[in-house]
Design brief:
Length: 199
């Protein structure tokens, strides 16, 4: 009897994760407007009732998909930004990695294109600040503490860097030549960062 509850809980969590994974795949391919809850339930091989057990509706499921994509990005960037090597090299590698993230279909469709409209601008910005901004702030703080860049107020500088990266992501996602645009955005970000360097 003691093992029944954890097993049930594990099954519940795996069903929820499967629904989120299906939502990410379908929202990426067809967009929010082109995806139905029936399709997500069918792809996950659960009933629509089971879907409603986990999510109140389509927007709640979209927000969970958004969070899943953002968490993947944060995990990926954190490994690079806070890995081995000098602080400067790690942050440069992390920013390069973020530019690559901007080319990924799920990030473009869900985070850049759809989320501001589906979640509303304010809620989207708040969510963005919980995820990508947090990593950027840590990176900026690490650069300031290491004496690599001019010691400006960390929050203000992190918001400016984050704003530039967000604008870069939108520019890449909206470009007809995304690879070329990503290279150009990377060059600009690199130049801006080097302009802040103390040595």
């Amino acid at each position: 009897m003691a093992t029944a509850r954890p097993r049930r809980l594990e099954h519940t969590e795996s069903t929820r994760q499967a629904l989120v994974n299906s939502a990410v795949a379908l929202f990426t391919k067809k967009g929010y407007g082109g995806t139905s809850l029936d399709e997500i339930a069918k792809r996950t091989r659960v009933t629509k009732g089971a879907l409603y057990h986990h999510f109140s509706g389509k927007q709640a499921l979209f927000e969970a998909a958004f969070e899943e994509v953002e968490q993947r990005v944060v995990r990926r960037l954190s490994k690079v930004l806070f890995g081995s090597g000098s602080t400067w090299d790690a942050v440069r590698a992390g920013l390069d990695d973020f530019i690559q993230v901007c080319l990924e279909p799920s990030y473009q469709r869900i985070v850049v294109h759809e989320a501001p409209a589906v979640m509303g601008w304010e809620r989207w910005r708040e969510a963005e600040e919980r995820y990508t901004f947090g990593v950027i702030r840590q990176a900026v703080q690490a650069l300031v503490e290491a004496g690599e860049i001019t010691p400006l107020p960390v929050d203000a500088l992190a918001h400016v860097v984050f704003g530039a990266l967000s604008a870069g992501a939108s520019t890449i996602a909206g470009s007809a030549k995304q690879k070329q645009t990503s290279t150009e955005v990377g060059q600009v970000v690199d130049r801006v960062l080097r302009g802040l360097r103390t040595q």
